[in-house]
Fold this sequence. Notes:
Shape: globular
Organism: Azospirillum baldaniorum
Protein name: Putative phage metallopeptidase domain-containing protein
InterPro entries: Put_Metallopep
Number of domains: 1
Keywords: Plasmid
Pfam families: PhageMetallopep
Largest sheet: 6 strands, mixed
Amino acid sequence: MARKPKGEVIRLGGLKRPMPPADLCEPLPPWRFVPAVDLTEWLMAVFVSETGLLANPEHAHLRQANIACLWANRPLVVKMNRAVAMAEMPQPRGNAWTAGRAEQQLEDWFGYEPDFLLTFDAVWWVEADDASACATVEHELFHCGQQRDVFGAPKFGQDGRPTFGIRGHDVEEFVGVVQRYGVGHAAGRTVDLVRAANSAPTIAPALIGAACGTCCRKMA
């Protein structure tokens, strides 16, 4: 697939994204979780594959990852923050029974042990526009990182596969610090973020009003 010329904005009007089962879109108890196999295939084809419509080279390491997705019928609320998506590395903990039960659940859902598990609020998903949905998916994919060695080089296991890990944000700073002291005194890569924000988006604008469960867990 030919690469888009630099500066061209990708329009998402013709993007066909998977939808959750209709009977899952009622945010009522009890909790329900349903494997989203078609969503997994879609995000791998659209964002991770080298020939994807919204291919991002920063996700190249995920081409060797086992990713699985779940639909949830209710949002996750952490300290009054509503999260509509979350990325995690399933690591069953506890005694042999609790860990074994969790491993069996993953096997029953997906037929394999995923490196990363992405969960999405089904009710929010059906109401979101394409750009917001894509931005949320990419936010979670950015959390699905590859570990680095002491020299900053990507780490690989003995089997040649990337050594995966949950990645934090590029930027950790308070808006008030930037407002009072300027970008030059901000922490981390805030300057890079501001430069990116001041440039035109490469994908149709997204209305991001949703929180990420991976981020909320760090706040808790």
